[in-house]
Structures are given as structure tokens and as C-alpha cells.
Amino acid sequence: MLNFVLVAAAVVPQTVDSLAAPKLITLEQAIQIALSENTTVKVAEMEIERTGYARKGSYSALFPSLDGSASFQRTIRRQRMYMDVPGFPGGNDGIEVGRWNTYSASATAAMPLINAQLWKSLRISDEDVELSVEKARSSRLETVTQVKQAYFSCLLARDAAAVYAGVYNNAMENLKLTQQKYNAQKASELDLARAKTAVANAMPNLYDSQSAVAIALWQLKAVMGVNLDEDIDVCGNLSDYSSQMYLGSQDVQNRDLGNNSTLKQLEIQARQLADAIKMQKYASLPSLALAYSYSLNAMTNDFKFSEYKWSPYSYVGISLSVPIFAGGKRHNSVRQAKVQAGELELQRVNTERQLQIALRQYIKTMETSINSFAAAESAVQTAQKAYDIAVKSYQVGRSTLTDLSDAQLALTQAQLAVSQAVYNFVVAKSNVEQTIGRDFTE
Predict the structure, then answer these.
(1) Containing H/E element for 44?
(2) In angstroms, rounded to a whole number, what is the distance separating the alpha carbons of residues 96 and 90?
(3) Which H helix or E strand runs over 96?
(4) Which of 90, 237, 264, 273 has the CA that lies 20 to 30 A from 174?
């Protein structure tokens, strides 16, 4: 059993060394990479571009439209004309009229002069672009929060791995000490078996914690939008963020949701529905348009193009369209839009209420984490002192291996509690920043 443990102890450093010399990135660098490489952010930016093109297409309705057409007709059977006039040629059989070939070409132009419904639809197109911009901001905020939490998860996994590595090293030292005492007949075989068991129990936790570090790094890379095989690592420790553990910052005290992205999107959608109601009402108003047309026609029986006689025809006019009756369609469309606006207002009120609850929960978590951190730090100092005393007492035979194991367990729990308290605080703080709509660029 001892030989197996010693072999395992030799393997662990090799596992750590295989991850040597990665590219270290800070939290700010990870966020910047994600904002340029994350798929969600890229899709949101493309959506802005798409709605921008759609708006330009809507504004084109204000400009004149020009269309051209050309046609050729070959008569298979010509029409006959009959007239009840004495002496009319053809008699009862009538006469054939028209020619075998008909050519025509035309160009038409039209432009709206007065169209209230069209003008309001252009306003809705502008709001579509504004909504896409806000959705893109929401994607960036969400991406920043995901990167922060993934980064903090990496730091937490590394701290846990360091703690379990310390537990493993302490167990190995205790095993060596117990082996020496056993060889000197100052320790029982039961103590030696317990020492070996402590080492064996420490190994799974060590391997699991190292695996958790690799998984956390993969999750961070996925959120950043980089290759999972890229050799990068986070720098720093969770303890570096312990100086931020206070509730006096402006971000925490500011509970104003005026910059929350979800509420801003609902606000834009409310304006769109208000404009949609007006647009439906404007459908009952008259519209005025300007039109122009020019055409050429030729009718022949042969294909001698140079001898064709082309007859031009053109006109310019103004058309007035007055909606009179549509079976109640326009009235019901207005009522439908009003119901949608009412639904959206209820949704906005409920969303704001839920956000306020979530914000209070995040702040309460931060407050609890601060208290837990203070208690855990004090516990670490006490547990470390108790462990050191237990080690010395065990060396001189004043305490048992069980006392030493209990001291090690208390120290491990206290060290993990410190890292967990910092992690809970920074994760809750990142959620607060996303909820109040604080941009990373700010």
C-alpha cells in the first residue's frame, strides 16, 4: 500500500507540470476577447445591420419608383367587327380588325405625396433599429456577466485544487511520520492503516479538483468564443477580490432600473405599439399620389422594323384614395393593437417587480458573503493554529492520529469557506451590475 501511495505522489506533480506555461489572461482581457469573438455578440451586431438595411428599404417608399415593361403579341385569330349600318362592308360576316404583330414598351413612375400611414410605418422602422441596438447591448451585458462568472469559477476551482493539494501533502507528511513512529514501535498498526487511508481518501479529491479546473477553463473558453484547445489560464486568486467585499459602492447602492436592458426593450416595444395604433388609425385617412406614364405602341403584319410606325402615349396625374368601408377591419386592428399595448404594460410591471426582487436577493447574498468571509477568515486562523498544535502534539505522542485528522478537516472546511464566500460575493455583484445595466465600457 505504501508503494502505491508513493507512486501516486510522484504522478501528481507531472499532471500539474503538463499544464505549464499557459498564456495568462486577466478578467478584463477575457471580457474584451469575448466581446469581439462571442457568437451571441456577433449575431446581435449582424441583427443591427439587418434592421438598418430594412429601415433604408422602408425610406425608399418616399422616393419616386420607376418601372419599365415591354411586350410582344402575335395574333392567332383576329377579331371581327360587326356594325348594323346599311352598306357596311362585310355584311353579316363582319370584317377582321387589327394586325398580326403588336409591340409595346412603357415606363411608369409614381411617388406618394400624402400618406400618413406610410410616414408612421417609417417611424416604426426606426424603432426596430433602436430595439436591435438595445438587444445587442443586452447580449454584451449578458456575455460580460457570463465571462465574469466563468472566470470566477476558474479561480474557485483553482483555490479548491490548492486546498486539496495541501490536504494531500499533509496526509503524505503524516503518513511518513506515522511510518517512522511505527518502525520505532511508537505507533500502532491501526495508526499506520489510518494514515494510509487518509492519503487514499485525499487522492480522489485532488484528482476531482484538478479535473474541475480543466472543465472550468473549457467553459470560460466557450463563453469567450475561442478554441477549446487554446492554452490559456486565468491569473490571480479569489483573495485578490476580497478588497471589493463591501456594500458602499455606487453600483450596489444604485437600485435604479432605468438602465436595465430588459425594461428598455419593453419601453421601445411600447412605443412601437403606440405608433402601430396610430398607423392603424391613419389607414382611414385619404392618401395622395403622383403618377406618370409614357408608352410606345406599334402594330404591323410583317417584321420590317425600320418601317414600323410607333405611336407614343403619355400622361401625368394625381390620384386620391379615400378609404370608405372595409368591413370593420381597420377598427378591429386598432382594438387589437390596444389590447397588445395593455398586455405589454402588464408584462413591464411584472418584469420590473421581478427585477427588483432579484436585485434585493443579489444584494442580500453579497451582505451574507461579507459576513461569511469574515467568519471564515477567523476560522482559518484558528483552524491553522489548531492543526499546527495537533501536528506537534502528534509528533511527541500527546495526541492521536484521529485528533490530527479532525484538525485537518476543520482547516480544509475553513479554507474552502473563505474561497466560497468571495466567489458568492463577486458572482452576486456581477448579477447586480447586469441588472442595473452597467456596461463594461463604463
Answers:
(1) helix 39-59
(2) 9
(3) strand 95-97
(4) 237
- Does residue 212 contact residue 18 with C-beta atoms inside 8 Å? no
- pLDDT single digits (tens) 68-93: 999 999 888 888 877 776 666 655 67
- For residue 74, what are the CA distances in angstroms to 71, 300, 303? 10, 10, 11
Phi-psi region at 328: left, alpha or beta (left = phi > 0; alpha = psi -120 to 50): left
Q: Where are the alpha helices (DSSP H) in 184-260?
A: 189-224, 250-253
pLDDT value for 352 = 93
- Whether residue 23 contacts residue 97, with contact meaning beta carbons closer than 8 Å, is answered with no
> What is the C-alpha separation between 142 and 35, in angstroms, rounded?
10
Query: Which residue(s) pair with 290 in the sheet?
Result: 111, 318
Q: Are 136 and 51 in contact (CB under 8 A)?
A: no
Report the C-alpha gap between 51 and 46 in whole angstroms: 9
How buried is residue 242: exposed, middle or buried, by Cβ count under 10 Å (0-12/13-18/19+)? middle
Residue type, 368: T
* Integer CA distances (angstroms), 308 to 74, 98, 145, 298, 435, in order: 15, 15, 75, 7, 76
Helix (H) / strand (E) element for 319: namely strand 311-321
Of 50, 68, 70, 67, nearest in space to 58 by CA: 50
Give me the numbers of helices (H) and strands (E) for the chain, helices first please.
Answer: 9, 8
Which residue matches cell numbers 465574469? 148
DSSP 91: G
Report whether 175 contacts 5 (CB < 8 A).
yes
Q: How confident is the model at residue 12 (pLDDT cuts 50, 70, 90)?
A: very low
* Separation of alpha carbons 138 and 16, rounded Å: 39
| Rounded Cα–Cα distance for residues 111 and 173 (Å) | 90
Cell of 177: 511520520
Q: How far apart are CA 369 and CA 385, in angstroms?
A: 24
> Kind and range of the H or E element at 359?
helix 329-395
- List the one residue out of 370, 363, 352, 373 whose CA is nearest residue 428: 363
Our CA angle for 324, 326, 328, nearest 5°, is 115
- With a cut of 70, say whether residue 1 has pLDDT above it: no
